[in-house]
Amino acid sequence: RSPLRSASGATVLTSLTFTPDGKAFAAVTGSSSQIDRSSDDGVHWQLVYNAPDNAPIYHVRVTPRGDIMASLGFWGGETVITTDLGTTWTAIPAPPGERATFFDNDYTGRIIVGTDSGIFRTGDNGRTWQQLWTSGGSDFIPRILFTPGGIMTALSIRSGVVESFDDGRTWDSLNTGLEDLTSRTILRDLAVDDEGYLYLSTGYDSYY
Q1: What is the dihedral of CA 109, 111, 114, 118, to 10 degrees?
Q2: Which residues contact 190 (CB under 8 A, 6 or more apart)?
């Protein structure tokens, strides 16, 4: 094993993701806050993004469509996306008046964002937004999952797990069998395996 090194020599790695063809994207912090790319298993790194004002980069991920998306700053900060492996980046603002807690895009390239009041979608890089689901406010959405068939499954700290089979027009609750959604139950993350089974982790040493 060899240590990963960023293009600038920064050593604080805040996020790491890989494309299907093996390219690595790392968010690092040191003399600057940046994203580096490696195409040779981490031997060499190339700087592909410098965050404005050294804003911390908390999450870098490959979206379902294969783009690279990164979240900047604290809760409610800006998100940037690249469709050409880091050559150019586009800033995506959160919906007006909302604090973004999760960004991703679906298989069609539309951007989906979870906020403290629900789930929104934009097809024009944040110029206009459509609200798909309303949580009731004072919420936190840490994860939204997508399938090629258009199914969306979201995890809401306040409302639990909700799912849509019709592109976000209607939503169903999937909370049967979960503990009571009270203040003592902290829902952490949601994942799906290749057979379609959902897995849910909580903040109290339990998972479903």
Answers
A1: -100
A2: 142, 143, 145, 153, 154, 155, 161, 198, 199, 200, 201
Q: What is the DSSP code (8-state) at residue 207?
A: B
β-sheet bridge partners, residue 80: 70, 91
For residues 151 and 43, give the distance between their C-alpha atoms in angstroms, rounded to a whole number.
38
Average pLDDT, the chain: 83
Q: How far apart are CA 82 and CA 89, in angstroms?
A: 5
Spatial separation of the C-alpha atoms in residues 36 and 24, rounded to whole Å: 8
- pLDDT lower than 50: segments of the chain: 1
For residue 52, what is the DSSP state? Answer: G
Instruction: Tell me if residue 91 falls in helix, strand or coil.
Output: strand
**Confidence (pLDDT) at 83:** 93
Q: Give the per-residue pLDDT at 9.
A: 59
* 46, 66 Cβ separation under 8 angstroms: no
Question: How many angstroms separate the CA atoms of 11 and 9, rounded?
Answer: 6
Q: Which pair of tokens denotes residue 179?
A: 């503990």
Euclidean distance between CA atoms 186 and 115, whole angstroms: 17
